[in-house]
Amino acid sequence: MFFQEVTPDTSGYMIAGYASAFIILAIYVASIYLRQRNLNQDMEMLAEMEKPALAEAKSKKKPAKPVTKKGRKK
Amino acid sequence: MNPKPLILKILDIVSLILLVVAAYLAIVVAPTEKVMGDVQRVFYFHIGTAWVALIGFVFTAVLSVIYLVTKDLKWDRIQVAAVEVSVVFFLITIILGSIWARPAWNTWWTWDPRLTTAAITELIYIAYFMLRQGIDDPNRRARFGAVYALIGGLSAPITFFAIRLFRTIHPVVIAGSNAAAEGNFSMTDDMLQAFFFALLAFTVIFIDLFWNRIRLGNFQNKVEEMKLQATW
């Protein structure tokens, strides 16, 4: 680089540098978004799985009242 | 997942604007360096990303100490977020440096002390995730990760001071000069403006991504707990 008189054209390297920086950042942001979306799907699936389990638990907690002779209305 | 706080939404937008303005100042406003030409402009992003990444690595060492003292897994999740974002920023640093080196040094890579320590630092933190992948117990994983990151944290100051301690061809642009350095330059006012703006922009972008990543980690933890409950 000594004794050079004209500034070299290194704009291609500059474009490559900025492009790679933006691409890496974009990939990372996308990865955060995708991981978040997958977790949301997992969460929804777990909630769906929990629904019948909860219903079952509720029915076990409140057993039907036994019908006795005393309780019968005349 | 809890809805995003308004401050974080604003920070997302501000980060994007700062990134665009930083690129504009670096590519359009800052003058072309006479000896290297346009490739010198990658320097603004190179230093900006290196600055936040190295601080991030030191910060993870501090978080390691906090976790080891408190044993609260919340600190482990924050540490993972800090390491991940720092690794991404440091990858950008290394790639930009390599692209700059090609026309400046006539090579993409050389085993110079700065480049070597930088590569080692990046590999140390990539290995951090590999280590964590191999441990199932969350407490054990957090403890091993904390000790590893605490020791790994030493690599950040070593990388920073490598160009000041050893004979190297890497330029020392900030606070110092090196006779052996190839590609040194002094900055004009416009260059300084672009430089400091890039530092500010990447600091804000780091905080934004870090915050988003912590939220993701917390959500991940919540889903894992729900999965465990479902299996029981």
Sketch the major β-sheet of chain B. Answer: none
Low-pLDDT regions of chain B: none
Largest sheet entry of chain A: none
Give the SSE order of chain A as H and E letters. Answer: H
Rg over alpha carbons of chain A: 34 Å
Question: Using DSSP, what is the number of strands of chain B?
Answer: 0
Which outline of chain A best applies?
rod-shaped
Task: Please name the defining characteristics of this protein.
heterodimer, A: about 70 residues, mainly alpha, 1 helix, about 70% helix, B: about 230 residues, 7 helices, about 75% helix, globular
Describe this structure in words.
The complex is a heterodimer of chains A (74) and B (232). With 74 residues, chain A is an all-alpha fold. Chain A has a domain of 33 residues. Helices cover 69% and strands 0% of the residues of chain A. Chain A contains 1 helix and no strands. The radius of gyration of chain A is 34 Å and the shape is rod-shaped. Chain B has one domain. Chains A and B meet through helix 1 of A and helix 1, helix 2, helix 3 and helix 7 of B.
